[in-house]
């Protein structure tokens, strides 16, 4: 053995032999396969947390899974005889695979997930929630993904690597291709041994990459994407029956104590961008991060929830909106808004409140109207008005790259808000508390000193949290001064996490934890986001410890407004119902309850924060039952949305929304709002009419320094979507 290894070193591995090997077709091919395999393993370890491998077989499969697929793909070039085309094809394949791998690395650092085909296809139209230009989490090792290609091309240019004119022997390309197939099939066989029915049961993406690799996962996902489109075409009305039976079986009855508490009131939903529950009641350097939100959280006029979780998937903000409005989940891959929104049938809050209780509706947001495909989706949901960044002055320092700053959004919305007929349903989408959490010095509170965690991202997060808190306070002051407050229920909720799992350990010092002991359950607990329902005049408010999620908001709010949800297809349950099931389903089929959590297939005790490595039979049976509940809930929602089954169902007193009725252009909106107020005359219920047709804008007081700035010819608002990381 010693002599064999010595010979192997001198003839094969020794650096003096490398250049000679690269000057042969077979040697060049071998080097590219080896180097790409090493890059994949680098990504697995340095960026994908070793994919949570938990036994020796998983380790072996993870280390071997790049080899088979890489050999198959790269060996296709071996069949090419012309030398220039041969070398060019190999480099092109290697570059494409490296690009795919690196995009997944970048994507994983923000989303803790892998890129699906839908994400790639929706690159220019989807995904609010990614990091802004210049804010990608680059690693010090990133150059290693590209250095091999740079060196190889450089060696070719200076002719240290010369094109081998000799084609491979007749059967050699086929042999190498066959070896690759054999390795891949063996990989899949042993993967199925360790994780039975891996492909048929479609485990989460981490499992797929762990066992098969990035390339096979991407191809498998592409096949699934195509199949989904075909399935939707073949959907029939009879498939809705199973969904209806499920909804009826899992309906949670109203709580008489709170049913109708907000009946007839206006509803304002404030979407707290990237805001997490941990920031409430948090003090840094002796100062509250969010003093005003804290006061709402503890108010006797509020019902607040401290175990309320975001349940978004890759759709991030759009998933949160979809759950809020429809009580159905986003898709397992990609954004429902972007993938299905062009022709989806919704039974959403704007249409339900309008048809059941005469509500007008509007959304206010400081970014472009096309973001997340909202200009189309909102029409299908029945929103009458969509007041986007196209309506506002976003020049100069008034906007960040994500849109109009929050203080200005609230202030500049007033000329439109005051013209809405009451009762109205209005939603505000804030943006300033958006990664990378940069805020101009002039907007920062000089009396607030943030943390010193070692992460600029985390430290800046609390600065923008504080700014968001001040923005909401100014808006509440306006509501009170203008007279809207007493007749308005305000719902405040966080859409998704702000600090990703990559950066979460930096929070340990702020939250009184030990960074070295930070674990997956700590990450799961950080998925808590606020839900505060503030109803002026209510005196029995409290902090509710019920476990729930964004899927539950719509039925909870509808019951508070005195609207029964029995007739609608909604997968959430009233959080105030005594029949509410305290199982929170995450989009990747993980889950958490007051007792246990299942995260990446591992069971945790949520009370002790301990991993349960060997659950007994009784606990395992309980876990299996909960997992079955979660799987069915998500699968039912997916079946409904992917097949657009709601097009076959019209509940009592509900008329299907006609999107062609809505025109969101600024001129049309302004004319329409003015015309409604004029035509109704003394019957108009808008705030403007109630105020003698005098604007209430002067009631709005803000300390935003940009409010006095004149319009300029430049803007920092980037005309791109959240997964566009370019600096252009």
Defining key terms:
single chain; 728 residues; five-stranded antiparallel β-sheet; 19 strands; globular
Describe what this molecule looks like in 3D.
It is a single chain. Mean pLDDT is 90; it is low at 123-135 and 720-728. Helix content is 42%, strand content 9%. The strands form 5 sheets. An 8-stranded mixed beta sheet has the order 7-6-10-1-11-12-4-13, sandwiched between helices. Strands 15-16-17-18-19 form a 5-stranded antiparallel beta sheet. The termini are far apart. With 728 residues, the chain is of the alpha/beta class. It contains 23 helices and 19 strands. Helix 3 runs parallel beside helix 5, helix 4 (56-75) crosses helix 9 (205-212) and helix 11 (240-249) crosses helix 21 (617-642).
Short structural description:
It contains 23 helices and 19 strands.
The residue fraction in helices comes out at 40-55%
Largest sheet: 8 strands, mixed
Uncertain residue ranges: 123-135, 720-728
Structural class by SSE content:
alpha/beta
Cα end-to-end separation: 58 Å
The main sheet orders its strands as 7-6-10-1-11-12-4-13
How many helix segments? 23
Shape: globular
What is the number of E strands? 19
Nearest-integer average pLDDT: 90
Determine the strand fraction and express it as a percent band. Answer: 5-15%
Radius of gyration: 28 Å
């Amino acid at each position: 053995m010693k002599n064999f290894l010595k010979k192997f070193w001198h003839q094969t591995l020794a650096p003096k032999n490398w250049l000679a090997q690269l000057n042969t077709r077979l040697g060049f091919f071998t080097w590219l396969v080896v180097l790409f395999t090493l890059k994949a393993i680098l990504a697995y370890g340095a960026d994908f947390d070793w994919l949570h491998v938990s036994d020796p077989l998983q380790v072996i499969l993870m280390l071997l899974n790049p080899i088979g697929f890489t050999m198959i793909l790269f060996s296709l070039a071996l069949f090419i005889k012309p030398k220039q085309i041969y070398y060019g094809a190999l480099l092109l394949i290697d570059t494409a695979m490296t690009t795919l791998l690196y995009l997944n690395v970048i994507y994983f650092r923000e989303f803790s997930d892998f890129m699906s085909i839908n994400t790639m296809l929706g690159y220019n139209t989807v995904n609010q929630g990614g990091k802004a230009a210049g804010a990608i989490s680059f690693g010090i090792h990133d150059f290693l993904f590209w250095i091999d290609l740079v060196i190889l091309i450089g060696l070719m240019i200076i002719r240290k690597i010369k094109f081998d004119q000799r084609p491979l022997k007749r059967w050699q390309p086929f042999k190498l291709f066959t070896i690759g197939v054999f390795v891949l099939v063996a990989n899949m066989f042993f993967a199925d041994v360790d994780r039975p029915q891996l492909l048929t049961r479609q485990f989460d993406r981490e499992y797929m990459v762990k066992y098969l690799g990035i390339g096979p996962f991407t191809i498998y996902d592409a096949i699934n994407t195509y199949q989904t489109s075909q399935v939707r075409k073949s959907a029939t009305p009879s498939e809705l029956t199973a969904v209806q039976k499920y909804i009826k079986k899992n309906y949670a009855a109203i709580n008489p104590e709170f049913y109708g508490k907000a009946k007839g009131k206006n509803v304002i939903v404030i979407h707290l961008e990237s805001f997490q529950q941990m920031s409430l009641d948090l003090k840094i350097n002796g100062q509250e991060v969010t003093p005003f939100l804290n006061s709402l959280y503890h108010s006797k006029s509020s019902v607040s929830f401290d175990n309320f979780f975001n349940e978004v998937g890759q759709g991030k903000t759009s998933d949160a909106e979809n759950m809020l409005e429809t009580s159905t989940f986003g898709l397992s891959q990609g954004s429902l808004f972007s993938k299905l929104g062009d022709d989806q049938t919704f039974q959403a809050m704007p249409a339900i409140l309008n048809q059941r209780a005469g509500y007008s509706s509007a959304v206010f947001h400081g970014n472009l109207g096309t973001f997340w495909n909202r200009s189309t989706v909102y029409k299908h949901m029945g929103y009458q008005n969509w007041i986007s960044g196209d309506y506002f002055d976003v020049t100069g320092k008034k906007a960040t790259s994500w849109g109009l700053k929050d203080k200005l959004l609230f202030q500049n919305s007033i000329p439109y808000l005051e013209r809405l007929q009451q009762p109205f349903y209005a939603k505000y989408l804030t943006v300033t508390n958006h990664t990378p959490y940069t805020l101009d010095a002039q907007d920062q509170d000089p009396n607030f000193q943030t943390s010193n965690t070692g992460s600029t991202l985390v430290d800046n997060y609390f600065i923008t949290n504080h700014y968001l808190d001040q923005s909401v306070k100014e808006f509440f002051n306006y509501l009170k001064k203008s007279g809207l407050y007493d007749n308005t229920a305000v719902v405040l909720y966080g859409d998704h996490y702000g600090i990703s799992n990559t950066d979460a350990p930096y929070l340990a010092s702020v939250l009184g934890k030990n960074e070295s002991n930070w674990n997956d359950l700590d990450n799961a607990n950080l998925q808590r986001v606020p839900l505060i329902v503030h109803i002026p005049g209510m005196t029995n408010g409290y902090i509710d410890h019920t476990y729930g999620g964004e899927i539950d908001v719509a039925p909870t709010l509808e019951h508070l407004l005195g609207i029964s949800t029995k007739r609608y297809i909604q997968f959430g349950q009233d959080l105030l119902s005594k029949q509410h099931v305290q199982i929170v389903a995450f989009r990747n089929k993980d889950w958490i309850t007051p007792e246990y959590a299942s995260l990446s297939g591992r069971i945790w005790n949520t009370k002790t924060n301990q991993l349960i490595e060997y659950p007994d039979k009784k606990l395992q049976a309980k876990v299996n039952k909960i997992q079955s509940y979660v799987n069915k809930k998500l699968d039912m929602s997916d079946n409904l949305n992917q097949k657009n089954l709601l097009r076959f169902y019209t509940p009592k007193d509900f008329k299907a929304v006609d999107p062609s009725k809505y025109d969101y252009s600024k001129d049309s909106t302004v004319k329409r709002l003015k015309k409604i107020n004029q035509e109704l005359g003394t019957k108009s219920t808008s705030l403007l009419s109630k105020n003698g047709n005098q604007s209430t804008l002067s009631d709005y007081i803000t300390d935003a320094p940009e409010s006095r700035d004149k319009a300029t010819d430049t803007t920092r608002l980037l005309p791109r979507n959240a997964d566009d990381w370019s600096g252009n």
